[in-house]
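Usage

Read records sequentially. Each one opens with the input sequence:
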Amino acid sequence: MESDPDTFFQGWFSHLYDLRRELLSARYSLGDRQKIQSVLDEFIAHYESYYQFRSEISQFDPVRAFTTPWATSVERGVVFWLAGWRPNTVVHLLYSESSRRFEAQLQDLIRGVGSGDLGDLSSTQLNLVDELQRRTIEAEDELELEMSRLHEELAGQFTVTGSMELGEAMSRIKDIIARADNLRMRTLRAALEVLYRPVQAVDLLIATADFEIGIRNIGLKYEMARSNAS
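and closes with the structure output:
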């Protein structure tokens, strides 16, 4: 690896701020489709770079990759699901942002004036989002079941022998991390495919960045408060 996880993540998070600014700029220059697509592609590549880096860590230290020590305690303890945000979070963000924008422009929609943004999703799009949520929850349940089985098997080994064989367990943890990260990216990509209008895709990615940045900042403030109190 070119850098240690802490350094990588600090740089990754700093660039996320930059990408958010670029997304906001793109939202108000919707006539430039090439610029919009470039920013969307860069955002996706940015998240892929994080999961690729974590995969490299996982090859030699699955536990470190799973516990994400570079994240704040709030992120790890309150938000994370299998070492990262729950894939269905993307769908929740989509619904939340859509509802907020729908309410704000309800009178315009009643008059037949559509905005084309997330507050103006078609019935077909809403059905596709519902289906995406169903598939995502099913996939999450499968991964949770696999993790539960691993816990039970390790507990059984320790109870019977007083020790644990960790080789196979580490391999399975690596597999669970990879599958969870793949599901996160797959869900994000699938959501963007449903949002065929550029402004809709931009709005979802801004909401995704805001969620990531907001939780991170809450975690940093919490840790600073604890440090000052000690």
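Summary fields computed downstream for this record:
- The chain has one domain: 5-229.
- The mean pLDDT is 89.
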